[in-house]
């Protein structure tokens, strides 16, 4: 038997999990850190096979304005080495992410990082890769976050260009071998396939909004084979330019982890960090 080649390269057909509405047709919701007896969500998922295109070697052909994702190559090594201490991550890694956003999104004049999530593919990890197609924010939830973090400036900030951009990178010491991240170009996403989902934080009472994605054959899915720690993926969740009449900017990239059928059972589990930021300007 031929040994598996790691990391897997090239286009692949894999199963992606899409939004399925609640059986009782009620408003969909997620419960973050649900209380005892509460379901984590009231909607389901439906699986479809999709061709996922490997953009390795073509990374620079994609942009935030056209695709709502962008790839950075050859990023200098981070001062943060272990990514286990929350305060150390905020002190060492956040400034690096802020600089990347300021340097690589033309016209950006202000960045506010509001949280991050670390995912590790192991049973004891608090958060594991999410195998459900989604978008982290909606227009409604982004405006609400601007008002939450900048109560005195929100009215002015919401008159200019504002976005939420996630900055994603793997934490593995070698190229990603399993559970890679897939993402679709906003240019292939139809409004009718985006479903707002109430996002309820049980501990704080804050209610945000994410989006589930219904399957559509128009969607064009991508991934970066063997992604490394020297690379960054910008994923746009929202861009206020998309609200303007006649705008060709979609500003939202659905994404999900997926099980690569070519990855052997003993492949190293994927570890990653995703930093979420409000980006203002021009």
Automatic annotation (TrEMBL):
GO terms for molecular function: oxidoreductase activity. Residues 19-45 are annotated as: Disordered. NCBIfam families: CmcJ_NvfI_EfuI (NF041278). Belongs to the asaB hydroxylase/desaturase family. This is 7alpha-cephem-methoxylase P8 chain related protein. It comes from [Torrubiella] hemipterigena.
């Amino acid at each position: 038997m031929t040994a598996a080649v790691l990391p897997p390269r090239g286009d692949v057909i894999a199963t992606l999990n899409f939004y399925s509405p609640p059986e009782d047709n009620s408003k969909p919701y997620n419960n973050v850190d649900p209380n005892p007896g509460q379901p984590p969500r009231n909607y389901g998922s439906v699986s479809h096979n999709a061709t996922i295109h490997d953009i390795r070697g073509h990374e620079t052909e994609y942009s935030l304005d056209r695709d709502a994702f962008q790839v950075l190559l050859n990023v200098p090594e981070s001062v943060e080495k272990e990514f286990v201490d929350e305060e150390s991550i905020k002190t060492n890694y956040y400034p690096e992410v802020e600089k990347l956003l300021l340097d690589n999104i033309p016209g950006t004049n202000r960045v506010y990082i509001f949280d991050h999530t670390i995912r590790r593919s192991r049973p004891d990890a608090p958060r594991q890769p999410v195998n459900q197609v989604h978008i982290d924010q909606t227009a409604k939830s982004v405006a609400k976050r601007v008002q939450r973090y900048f109560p005195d400036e929100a009215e002015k900030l919401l008159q200019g260009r504002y976005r939420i951009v996630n900055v994603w990178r793997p934490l593995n010491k070698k190229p990603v071998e399993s559970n890679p991240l897939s993402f679709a170009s906003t240019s292939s996403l139809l409004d009718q396939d985006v479903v707002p989902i109430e996002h309820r934080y049980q501990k704080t009472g804050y209610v945000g909004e994410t989006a589930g994605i219904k399957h559509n054959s128009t969607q064009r899915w991508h991934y970066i084979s063997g992604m490394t720690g020297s690379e960054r993926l910008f994923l746009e969740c929202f861009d206020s330019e998309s609200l303007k009449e006649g705008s060709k900017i979609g500003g939202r990239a659905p994404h999900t982890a997926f099980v690569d059928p070519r990855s052997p059972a003993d492949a190293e589990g994927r570890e990653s960090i995703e930093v979420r930021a409000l980006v203002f300007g021009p």
